[in-house]
Amino acid sequence: MKTALITGVTGQDGSYLAEFLLEKGYQVHGVIRRSSSYNQERLEDILDEEAANALLNNGDFHLHYGDVTDTSNVIRLISEVQPDEIYNLAAQSHVRVSFDMPGYTLDVDGKGTLNILEAVRILGLTEKTKVYQASTSELYGKVQEVPQKETTPFYPRSPYGVAKIYGFWITKNYRESYNMFAVNGILFNHESERRGETFVTRKISLAAARIAQGKQKKVSLGNLDSLRDWGYAKDYVECMWLILQHDQPEDFVIATGEMHTVREFVELAFNHVGIEIEWTGQGVEEKGTNKATGEVIVDVDPKFFRPTEVDQLLGDPTKARTLLGWNPTKTSFEELVRIMVIADMKKVEKEDRVKKMFD
């Protein structure tokens, strides 16, 4: 049985990866930050199953309090767990928020990565433990070529991208300096029904569900022309695992090779709830109207613009497809949007039922 340590296990990617590795027969240890509120919703299915397994002394999923910015804590956890694989998914990952919290973003996304690599080195685990670093397409920022691949020069356009570029290079440096199996997965935008509600795709799918059920009037968005390469997070965690199973430690772009605008995402999401959108105006004056009723249900708010915008991101998954045998389009863009909207329709219906119970 292999042992894996996942930082950021309560996040979208962490929860899917934990499920994936448990199905592969791993013993999984997840790191969670201490919080005064419950923050393990995405792990509820695993925790329910593990509670049953614990009665038989057969539990394979374990949670530990920790924080990647705490050097001594990182060293202690890795020393106790002795993992075969570490997946560093912990991050302040909201690009817009990184402009407001640049120092914190650097501490978590940059120093946090260093702490993990240094702990593996100090503990003498460089021959045993493989390290996966969750990198990002935001490294490319002001893109230098289209599509972006492993050799494309970086040009980050946010504190998040800059912090992640440190994480990328320190991982590569430790690989070359200490002969560690330390690799970067350069993930392009990947979404799911578990995406945080402040991220644009989940904001759209949730708004479509709420507007369709009369719980919300409209949704305000930023740049509708932004082009992104959107994939399904559940598919992407498989590629993370495949990267660590590869014979040689190498960096890989994880992407679909397709690009769509935010506007397209909006149209598809509302189509899935039976609403056709008609667009009028341009720029900050652009509005999306419910064609059947004439009501404005989408508008543009400049407060959601970034100080420096990334206009387009399109990844080239050829290397991952060729060397790892990974299928980048297992879940299509259209299917991804459908999955998210269906999940949010159910979420809104459940919230309404609970509310009525207490009215």
Automatic annotation (TrEMBL):
Cofactor requirements of the protein: NADP(+)
GO BP, one annotated term: 'de novo' GDP-L-fucose biosynthetic process
Top EC class for this record: lyase
E.C. designation(s): 4.2.1.47
GO molecular function terms attached to this record: GDP-mannose 4,6-dehydratase activity; NADP+ binding
Pfam families: GDP_Man_Dehyd
Catalysed reactions, as listed in the record: GDP-alpha-D-mannose = GDP-4-dehydro-alpha-D-rhamnose + H2O
Gene3D superfamilies: NAD(P)-binding Rossmann-like Domain, UDP-galactose 4-epimerase, domain 1
Domain spans labelled NAD(P)-binding: 5-340
Keywords annotated in UniProt: Lyase, NADP
Top-rank taxon: Bacteria
Role this protein plays: Catalyzes the conversion of GDP-D-mannose to GDP-4-dehydro-6-deoxy-D-mannose.
Protein family: Belongs to the NAD(P)-dependent epimerase/dehydratase family. GDP-mannose 4,6-dehydratase subfamily.
Protein name as annotated: GDP-mannose 4,6-dehydratase
Source species of the chain: Paenibacillus roseopurpureus
